[in-house]
User: What shape does this take?
Amino acid sequence: MKEKKIKLGRLLTNGGSAEAEHEKRAESFQKKVLKSAFWFFLIFFICGLISRGMYGAILPRVGVESPKKMSLTHRVEAEGSIVENKRAAVLAKEGIRIEAVLVKQGQSVSKDEPLVQLDLNDLESLIEDKEIEIEKSSIQIKAMEKNQALAAGEKAVNQKRANEDYENTRQKSDISLGKAQDKINEAKAERDSFPPQKEYVLQAREQDEEYQSLLKNLEEKKQQLEEIKSREAVSQEEKEEKKNEKEQLKLEIEEARQALAGYKESLTASLKQEWERKKEELDENVSSLETESRQASLQKEEDMRMAGRAVEDANREAAADSSLELARLEKRELEKQLEAYKKIKEQGGKILAPMEGDIVEIHAIEGERTGDNALLHMTDREEGYRFSAEITKKDRKYINIGDLTEVKIGTGEKVLSDIPVETIEESKEQEGIYVVSFPITKDMGRLGDSGTMKLSAGDGEKNLCVPLSAIHSDGIKNYVLLAATNQTILGEELKAVRRDVTILDKNESTAAIDSGAITEEDRIIVSATKHIKEGDTVRLLEN
Assistant: This one.
């Protein structure tokens, strides 16, 4: 037991010593870990600094500017020359042969100085030809005037005859219509006086002999009967005889009555048919006469229309004939030409300068004839000279009438300053080109001298202006790149951020842009050490 306790004590003693040793080793290990971690992070930090420095060294460096408020100045420069202020054309009558040109291009001439010599022999021949043409024209005009007078007389006769025919036609037509109306009136009167059928039948029966004879026979028989009835009969024999006579007469009366009735009926039917026929004839006669009257009226209208047309034709103005007036005008023109030829002949065939000036262009060619074009063009020295230069449509908006210009004439050192622009006109020969001009005095240069015009013009103050180098384009839109701050795990960085812009105006160095995309606080990239694009990380150039 005692040995066991001794062994246990030893074990406990050894166990405490091991635990202490373990704790000592653990503490030593922790120190080593902390030391290693310290050196690891120290080395990592140093490497990070080295890496960041190297990374920053390879980044493009950019120069930035904020938009500024300023006025853009546009400089316009154009080449030009001294031209005449007024050009005069020297003309001559057409068709005269040119013998000699007496001046040269660029030559100064005085007023009435000979410029061109015309062929006097040719001029004399032209004068004779014009005189013959004038004589022919006079003869032609007299013939035309006579023919016009004859035509006027013939027209007057035709007018008179047409008016007479018209009046005769009217009178004959009126007479014919009047007679036709009289016949109609007579026929109507006859028709209206025709008795009614019953009356016509009664009148006709009264005039019919057979009817009257039968009627008379009946009346006589009736009278005989009355006489027999009134006769006295005394004896039986007389009475018997009277009776027989009465019976006989009654039979005869009945026969006479039947004969009269039968004839009356036949006669009445015949007379009615006769009345209807005559009545129809009377109506037809009236209708026929009215038809004839209407036809006569239509014929009158036709005859009057034809006669009226004849009057119109006679009074109608003849077709316009300008041949006589044209002949007179032609004669007057020939006389003017003749007068011009004679005036040139009086000057010895010379064409004189109408004013003092310089010969600009010569069109006359010796040996050829004058035409309707100018023989030559010359300046009018009294009108002075002008400097004229051409500018583009883009520069036109920067120049206004009255703006002061600077002009250098030729290759000399002489510079003319503060000359106001007088005219700005669109070129007739070239689209989109404008001609700027202003007067100059003759001591400033000679006709034809070239020079350079310069002018600076402002276009008003703009709010947001940046250097032209800050403007980029993708072929569709213009844009600028901003240097914008971006937060990363390594700290703050600058990124190139795109902003689309609208250019309001620009000159050789500066552009004015719309205020909708950027502000005065934005940092616009205006330069870079290498090409940059949207999204690139950049560094600022150090001052």
User: Anything to note?
Assistant: The chain is about 50% helix and 25% strand. The helical segments are 2-58, 120-193, 197-206, 209-230, 236-315, 323-346, 393-396. The first helix runs from residue 2 to 58. Residues 4-8 have pLDDT under 50 and may be disordered.
